C-alpha cells in the first residue's frame, strides 16, 4: 500500500506502544494542569474567597465539620436559620461535599500539612475538575479509543459549560458531582461490557457517593434504567446486562438509603420508580430466558405471553394503587416542572423565581460549548453508525440532556459531559481518517472523472459531487452486505490531509481562546465582590457586600435577627453570623411568603409582621446608584408573586404596575409600589444624594421624584459605600403607646391629624418646600 | 307485484345480499320488473369444492354491504342477491351454466330506469376476484355509483411501521433533530412564548438572554450543516474511489465549514456584543 507521508518503519511495536502510553500520561497530566489553572482566574483576579450564595452555606457547614467533627455535624441543629423555626442541618443536607473537604482536611493534617479549611473549600472544585477530565477520558475510551478519550478529557477540562460551576471558590455540590456522574457512568458501561459484578458494585459505590453529594443523582437513577430498558426493547438482553444492572441497583439503592436526606425515597417516590420497575422487568426477562431453555417453544410462547401480561398488569396496578394510597409520592414539583414547563410558574413561583431555573436561549449554548455544540450531532451519528450497547447509552444521554438543558440553564451542566464525549468521538474519527498515512491504490477510472471534473461547469460540478456524495452516504450508512457496498478506501494525497489538519488545529485553537475568554470574563466573578474598570482601565473592586456583613458582625448583638430576601440568607449567616428569617434552602414556602409580604406591604401592615418575628434589622440590596441590576427592586415582583400565592386577597401583583401595565419606580409608580416597604427602603433619602439635581435610578433608567419616601417604623442603620446594601433597624414600640407614625410626626413637631392622615404628607412637603 | 316487492326487500337490512331459490329468482328477474338487480350465482357448499366461489364471496358481500348503506330511495331500486347451486339447480340448468361463480346484472325492464335492454350482462372475471373492479363494473347498472372504498390495509401498514421503527436511521434522524432543535433554544421560545420574529421585522432578538422563534430554525440549520459537513468528511469521503473527486469534496466541505462557522460567530456577536473574536467574516 502506498503512503502519503513517509513513516519510520524500523520501530518495534513494543516501542510504539510504550511511547504512546507515555505520551498519553503526559497529555492527561497536562490536561489536568490546564483544567485546574483555567479555574484560578477567580483567585488571581480577586482573592481566595467563597463565591455566590449556596457555597457560603456549604462553607459554613464544612467549618462546623472541621472544627467539631463528623458526629457533631451529623446532629447539627441550626437555631439561627429560619428564625424562629431553626433547621435540622444534618438531616436536610447532601453531606458528600462537606465530608470530602473534611477528609482532605484531616488527611492533610495527618501529614502535618496544616491547610486552612477555606483554601481547601476554594480549591476543591478545580481539583475535582482534573478528576472529571480523567473520568471522561475513561468513559470515552470505552466509546471509541484512547485518542478520543484524550480529546474528550481536554474538552471537558476547559469547556465553559463546566467551568461555570467549578471555578475556584464555587464550593457547591456540582463541584464534585460531575466527576461522580462521569465515573459512575464509566463503571456502568464497564460492568455492562464485561458482565462484571465487581464493576457493577463500584458503580453502586460511586452512585452512593453521588447521592450523598448532589440532588441531581436522580439523573443517574433514571439514565441507567432507561439504558437497560432500551437495550431490552432492542432485543439485546444478555446475562451481562442482568448482572450489571442487578448488582448496581441492589447495592446502589440500599447504599443510597443510608443518606438521611434521601431515606426511603428510593422505594416511595415516583422519581425512583423507573429503576425499580426495570429491575423487576429484568428479573422477568431473565426468568423467561431460563424457562425457554427448558421447555418447548410452543409452550414457551404461551407461558411468555401469560407471564408478561400478568406481570405488566400487576406491576401497573400496584404502582397506581400505591400512588393512589399515597405510599408512592407523585413526582415532586421540582422534577415535574421539567416536563410540564408551565407548572412551576403557576404553582411554585419560588422554583420559577430562581435565575438558574430559567430556560436557555441559544447564545448560552454556544457560549458554554462553542464548536462542540455542532460536533455533537455528528458524534451522535457516529454512535448510531456503530451502535454497540455503550453507544446506545450516549445516544439516550444526548437526547435527554439536550432537552433538560433547554428547559433549565443549570442543567447545561449535565449536557456538557455528553457533548464533550460525542464531539470527541466525531473529532477523533475525523483525525483518525486524515492522519492515517496509508493511501489507497489509484484506480484507472480516476483519470476519467478527473477529466470530466476539470472540463465541467462549476454549478454542475458541485451538484454532481454532492449528489454522488449523498449516494455514498447512504451506502456508507447502511450496514454493509458483502461485496456490493463500497469499500473503505482512505484518503488520497497530502494536500487534503494538510487541509483537514490545519482546519482542525484552527478550530481547536479558537476553542481554547474562546474558553479562556469566557472563563476570565463571564464565569470567574465571585458575585460577593464586584469589579469595575476605572477610567484608566485599572480594576476597581466594589466590596459593598462584605462591608455590610462585617458591619452587622461588628455592630449588632449576636442574637439580632436580620430579615432580607432569601437570596442573601446564606451570606448573612456565613459572613455576618446573624440569625436570618429565610435563606437559600427555600424549604418553607410560607415563611418566605411572609418575608415577601412584609417587603411588599405598607409600613402599617409590615410592622406587626416584623415585630412578631423579632426582626431587629432589615437588609435590602439596592443597585440604583451604581447600576447593579441584580438588586431587590428587580426581584421585587417575585416577592409579590410568592406572597400572593399565600395571601391572594392582600397582595395582588397588578397593583404594583401602573395602569398602563408598566413597572415603574418614578413619580408615575403605583400607590402600592410607593407605599411598599421595599420601595421605601430602597429609595429612602436617595434624592438627597444628588444635591438639588434630578435623582436617577441607573438600573431602571427612571427619574425619581424630588421628595423621597419617608419611613416611620424603621431607622436607617447603615448604607454601604456604593449604596448596594442598605440596613435598617426596626424601631421598638413607642414607649407612650402611640403608633409610630404619630410619634414620628410629633417628634418632628407636627400635629396629629387623626381624621385626615393622607393630608399629612402634603403638609410635610409644603413645609419642606418653604 | 307490490306485495312481492315488499317481501323481497324486507330482509335487506339484515343481510346486504338476498338469498334466492328458484322461485324468488324468477320473481326477481321477472320481465316486468321496474328495478335492477345484481345476482351472484355460486356454489358455496363445501361438497361442491368450488374454491373460486369461496374466494369471490367476501368481495361480493363487501360490495353488497357498501350498497346497503346508500339511502333508502336508491337502495330500493337495485338489489344484490345470491343464488346458491344447491338452492336453484333448475336456474343453473336453465341458464346453461357449467361453472361458478357467475355475476349477472339485470337492468330494469320497465319504469323510468328502463333502457330498453332486458337481457342480463355478465361480469368478466378477468380483473380477478377483487371487490374494487366489481363495484366499478356494477356501478354502471345502479342508479348511483356504489360507495365502495377498499378497507384499510392494517397488515401492510404494521409491517412498514415496524420496519421503519426497527431501522436505526429513523431513530438517528429523530434523535439528531431533537437535540438540534433543543440546543437552538426551542424550549426557550416555548416557555417564554417568544414571537416568531420581532415587531419591526427583525428576526434576531437583541440581548444574550433572549431570542425569537425564527432563530431556532436558523441556528439549528447552521448546526446541522456544520455537523453534516463533518459526517461527510469522516464517513463518506474516504469511500470515494476517484482521487480527484475526493480532493474536490475535501476542499468543498472544508470551505463549507469555514464559511458557516464564520456566519455562526457573526450571529453570536450580534447577540453578545462584547465577544472579541471573529473568523473570516
TrEMBL record, chain A:
Matches recorded under InterPro entries: Oligo_trans_STT3, STT3-PglB_core, STT3_N
Keyword vocabulary terms for this entry: Endoplasmic reticulum, Glycoprotein, Glycosyltransferase, Magnesium, Manganese, Membrane, Metal-binding, Transferase, Transmembrane, Transmembrane helix
Residue ranges of the region described as Disordered: 442-464, 746-770
A GO BP annotation: post-translational protein modification
Protein localization: Endoplasmic reticulum membrane
Family that this chain belongs to: Belongs to the STT3 family.
Protein name per Swiss-Prot or TrEMBL: Dolichyl-diphosphooligosaccharide--protein glycosyltransferase subunit STT3
TM region(s), chain numbering: 21-44, 88-108, 120-140, 146-163, 175-191, 241-261, 273-291, 303-324, 365-384, 391-409, 415-435, 498-520
Compositionally biased spans, kind Basic residues: 748-763
Enzyme class: transferase
Signal sequence segment: none
Chain ranges of the Oligosaccharyl transferase STT3 N-terminal domain: 23-422
Catalyses which reaction(s): a di-trans,poly-cis-dolichyl diphosphooligosaccharide + L-asparaginyl-[protein] = N(4)-(oligosaccharide-(1->4)-N-acetyl-beta-D-glucosaminyl-(1->4)-N-acetyl-beta-D-glucosaminyl)-L-asparaginyl-[protein] + a di-trans,poly-cis-dolichyl diphosphate + H(+)
Needed co-factor(s): Mn(2+); Mg(2+)
STT3/PglB/AglB core domain mapped to chain residues: 561-611
Membrane topology: Multi-pass membrane protein
EC number(s) from the headed UniProt entry: 2.4.99.18
The protein's role, per its UniProt record: Catalytic subunit of the oligosaccharyl transferase (OST) complex that catalyzes the initial transfer of a defined glycan (Glc(3)Man(9)GlcNAc(2) in eukaryotes) from the lipid carrier dolichol-pyrophosphate to an asparagine residue within an Asn-X-Ser/Thr consensus motif in nascent polypeptide chains, the first step in protein N-glycosylation. N-glycosylation occurs cotranslationally and the complex associates with the Sec61 complex at the channel-forming translocon complex that mediates protein translocation across the endoplasmic reticulum (ER).
Molecular functions (GO terms): dolichyl-diphosphooligosaccharide-protein glycotransferase activity; metal ion binding
TrEMBL record, chain B:
One BP annotation, GO: protein N-linked glycosylation via asparagine
Membrane topology listed for this record: Multi-pass membrane protein
Coiled coil start-end: none
TM ranges: 169-188, 218-238, 250-268
Subcellular compartments: Endoplasmic reticulum membrane
GO MF term set: transferase activity
Domain of life per record: Eukaryota
Keyword Ubl conjugation appears in the UniProt entry: no
InterPro entries: OligosaccharylTrfase_OST3/OST6, Thioredoxin-like_sf
GO cellular component assignments: oligosaccharyltransferase complex
Keywords: Endoplasmic reticulum, Membrane, Signal, Transferase, Transmembrane, Transmembrane helix
Homology family: Belongs to the OST3/OST6 family.
Function, as annotated: Subunit of the oligosaccharyl transferase (OST) complex that catalyzes the initial transfer of a defined glycan (Glc(3)Man(9)GlcNAc(2) in eukaryotes) from the lipid carrier dolichol-pyrophosphate to an asparagine residue within an Asn-X-Ser/Thr consensus motif in nascent polypeptide chains, the first step in protein N-glycosylation. N-glycosylation occurs cotranslationally and the complex associates with the Sec61 complex at the channel-forming translocon complex that mediates protein translocation across the endoplasmic reticulum (ER). All subunits are required for a maximal enzyme activity.
Protein's recorded name: Oligosaccharyl transferase subunit OST3/OST6 family
The organism of origin for this protein: Roridomyces roridus
Amino acid at each position: 500500500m502506498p503512503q502519503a507521508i513517509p513513516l519510520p518503519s524500523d520501530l518495534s511495536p513494543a516501542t510504539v506502544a510504550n511511547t504512546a502510553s507515555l505520551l498519553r500520561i503526559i497529555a492527561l497530566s497536562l490536561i489536568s494542569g490546564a483544567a485546574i489553572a483555567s479555574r484560578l482566574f477567580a483567585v488571581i483576579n480577586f482573592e481566595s474567597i467563597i463565591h455566590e450564595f449556596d457555597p457560603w452555606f456549604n462553607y459554613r457547614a464544612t467549618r462546623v465539620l472541621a472544627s467539631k467533627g463528623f458526629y457533631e455535624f451529623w446532629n447539627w441543629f441550626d437555631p439561627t436559620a429560619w428564625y424562629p423555626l431553626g433547621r435540622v442541618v444534618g438531616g436536610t443536607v447532601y453531606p458528600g461535599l462537606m465530608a470530602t473537604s473534611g477528609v482532605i482536611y484531616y488527611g492533610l493534617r495527618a501529614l502535618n500539612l496544616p491547610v486552612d479549611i477555606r483554601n481547601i473549600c476554594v480549591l476543591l472544585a478545580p481539583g475535582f475538575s482534573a478528576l472529571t477530565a480523567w473520568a471522561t477520558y475513561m468513559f470515552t475510551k470505552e466509546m471509541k479509543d484512547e485518542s478520543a478519550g484524550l480529546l474528550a478529557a481536554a474538552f471537558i477540562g476547559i469547556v465553559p459549560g463546566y467551568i461555570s460551576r467549578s471555578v475556584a471558590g464555587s464550593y457547591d455540590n456540582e463541584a464534585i458531582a460531575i466527576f461522580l456522574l462521569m465515573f459512575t457512568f464509566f463503571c456502568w458501561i464497564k460492568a455492562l461490557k464485561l458482565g462484571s459484578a465487581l464493576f457493577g458494585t463500584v458503580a453502586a459505590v460511586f452512585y452512593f457517593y453521588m447521592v450523598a453529594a448532589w440532588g441531581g443523582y436522580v439523573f443517574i437513577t433514571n439514565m441507567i434504567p432507561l439504558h437497560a430498558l432500551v437495550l431490552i426493547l432492542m432485543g439485546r438482553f444478555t446475562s451481562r446486562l442482568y448482572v450489571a444492572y442487578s448488582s448496581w441497583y441492589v447495592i446502589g439503592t440500599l447504599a443510597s438509603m443510608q443518606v438521611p436526606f434521601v431515606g426511603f425515597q428510593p422505594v416511595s417516590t415516583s422519581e425512583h420508580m423507573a429503576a425499580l420497575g426495570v429491575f423487576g422487568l429484568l428479573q422477568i426477562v431473565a426468568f423467561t430466558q431460563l424457562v425457554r431453555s427448558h421447555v418447548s417453544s410452543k409452550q414457551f410462547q404461551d407461558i411468555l405471553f401469560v407471564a408478561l401480561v400478568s406481570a405488566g398488569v400487576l406491576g401497573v396496578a400496584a404502582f397506581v394503587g400505591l400512588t393512589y394510597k399515597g405510599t408512592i409520592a407523585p413526582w415532586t414539583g421540582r422534577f415535574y416542572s421539567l416536563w410540564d414547563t408551565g407548572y412551576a410558574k403557576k404553582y411554585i413561583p419560588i422554583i420559577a423565581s430562581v435565575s438558574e431555573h430559567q430556560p436557555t436561549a441559544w447564545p448560552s449554548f454556544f457560549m458554554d460549548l462553542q464548536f462542540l455544540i455542532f460536533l455533537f450531532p455528528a458524534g451522535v451519528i457516529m454512535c448510531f453508525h456503530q451502535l454497540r450497547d455503550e453507544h446506545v447509552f450516549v445516544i439516550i444521554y444526548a437526547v435527554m440532556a439536550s432537552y433538560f438543558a433547554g428547559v433549565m440553564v443549570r442543567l447545561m451542566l449535565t449536557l456538557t459531559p455528553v457533548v464533550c464525549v460525542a464531539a470527541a468521538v466525531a473529532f477523533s474519527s475525523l483525525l483518525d481518517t486524515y492522519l492515517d498515512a496509508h493511501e489507497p491504490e489509484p484506480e484507472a477510472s480516476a483519470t476519467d472523472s478527473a477529466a470530466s471534473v476539470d472540463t465541467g461547469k462549476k454549478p454542475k460540478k458541485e451538484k454532481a459531487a454532492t449528489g454522488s456524495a449523498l449516494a455514498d452516504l447512504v451506502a456508507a450508512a447502511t450496514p454493509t452486505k458483502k461485496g456490493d457496498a463500497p469499500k473503505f478506501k482512505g484518503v488520497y494525497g497530502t494536500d487534503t490531509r494538510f487541509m483537514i489538519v490545519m482546519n482542525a488545529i484552527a478550530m481547536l485553537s479558537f476553542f481554547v481562546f474562546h474558553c479562556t475568554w469566557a472563563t476570565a470574563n463571564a464565569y470567574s466573578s465571585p458575585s460577593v465582590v464586584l469589579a469595575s474598570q476605572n477610567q484608566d482601565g485599572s480594576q476597581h473592586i466594589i466590596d459593598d457586600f462584605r462591608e455590610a456583613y462585617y458591619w452587622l458582625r461588628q455592630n449588632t448583638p449576636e442574637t439580632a435577627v436580620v430579615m432580607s430576601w432569601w437570596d442573601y440568607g446564606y451570606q448573612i449567616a456565613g459572613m455576618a453570623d446573624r440569625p436570618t428569617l429565610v435563606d437559600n434552602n427555600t424549604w418553607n414556602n410560607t415563611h418566605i411568603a411572609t418575608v415577601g409580604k412584609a417587603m411588599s406591604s405598607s409600613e402599617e401592615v409590615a410592622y406587626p409582621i416584623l415585630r412578631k418575628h423579632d426582626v431587629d434589622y432589615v437588609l435590602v440590596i439596592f443597585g440604583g446608584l451604581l447600576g447593579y441590576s441584580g438588586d431587590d427592586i428587580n426581584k421585587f415582583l417575585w416577592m409579590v408573586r410568592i406572597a400572593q400565592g399565600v395571601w391572594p386577597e392582600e397582595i395582588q401583583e397588578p397593583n404594583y404596575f401602573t395602569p398602563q401595565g408598566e413597572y415603574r419606580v418614578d413619580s408615575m409608580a403605583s400607590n402600592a409600589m410607593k407605599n411598599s416597604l421595599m420601595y421605601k427602603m430602597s429609595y429612602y433619602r436617595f434624592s438627597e444624594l444628588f444635591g438639588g439635581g434630578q435623582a436617577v435610578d441607573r438600573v431602571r433608567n427612571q427619574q425619581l421624584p424630588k421628595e423621597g419616601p419617608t419611613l416611620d417604623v424603621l431607622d436607617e442603620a447603615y448604607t454601604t459605600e456604593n449604596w448596594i446594601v442598605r440596613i435598617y433597624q426596626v424601631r421598638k414600640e413607642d414607649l407612650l403607646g402611640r403608633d409610630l407614625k404619630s410619634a414620628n410626626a410629633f417628634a418632628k413637631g407636627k400635629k396629629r391629624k387623626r381624621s385626615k392622615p393622607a393630608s399629612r404628607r402634603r403638609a410635610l412637603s409644603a413645609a419642606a418646600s418653604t | 307485484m307490490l306485495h312481492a316487492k315488499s317481501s323481497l326487500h324486507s330482509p335487506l337490512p339484515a343481510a346486504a345480499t338476498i338469498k334466492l331459490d328458484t322461485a324468488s329468482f324468477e320473481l326477481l328477474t321477472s320481465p316486468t320488473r321496474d328495478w335492477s338487480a345484481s345476482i351472484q350465482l355460486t356454489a358455496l357448499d363445501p361438497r361442491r369444492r368450488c374454491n373460486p366461489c369461496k374466494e369471490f364471496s367476501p368481495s361480493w358481500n363487501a360490495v353488497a354491504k357498501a350498497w346497503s348503506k346508500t339511502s333508502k330511495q336508491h337502495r330500493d331500486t337495485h338489489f344484490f342477491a345470491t343464488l346458491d347451486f344447491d338452492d336453484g339447480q333448475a336456474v343453473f340448468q336453465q341458464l346453461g351454466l357449467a361453472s361458478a361463480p357467475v355475476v349477472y346484472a339485470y337492468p330494469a325492464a320497465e319504469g323510468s330506469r328502463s333502457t330498453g335492454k332486458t337481457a342480463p350482462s355478465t361480469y368478466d372475471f378477468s380483473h380477478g376476484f377483487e371487490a374494487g373492479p366489481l363495484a366499478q363494473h356494477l356501478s354502471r347498472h345502479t342508479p348511483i355509483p356504489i360507495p365502495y372504498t377498499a378497507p384499510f390495509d392494517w397488515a401492510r401498514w404494521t409491517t412498514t411501521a415496524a420496519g421503519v421503527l426497527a431501522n436505526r436511521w429513523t431513530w438517528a434522524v429523530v434523535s439528531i433533530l431533537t437535540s438540534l432543535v433543543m440546543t437552538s433554544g426551542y424550549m426557550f421560545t416555548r416557555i417564554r412564548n417568544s414571537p416568531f420574529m420581532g415587531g419591526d421585522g427583525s428576526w434576531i432578538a437583541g440581548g444574550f438572554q433572549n431570542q425569537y422563534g425564527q432563530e431556532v430554525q436558523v441556528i439549528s440549520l447552521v448546526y446541522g450543516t456544520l455537523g453534516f459537513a463533518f459526517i461527510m468528511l469522516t464517513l463518506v469521503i474516504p469511500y470515494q474511489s476517484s482521487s480527484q473527486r475526493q480532493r474536490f469534496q475535501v476542499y468543498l466541505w472544508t470551505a463549507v465549514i469555514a464559511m458557516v462557522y464564520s456566519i455562526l460567530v457573526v450571529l453570536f456577536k450580534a447577540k453578545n456584543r462584547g465577544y472579541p473574536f471573529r473568523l473570516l467574516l
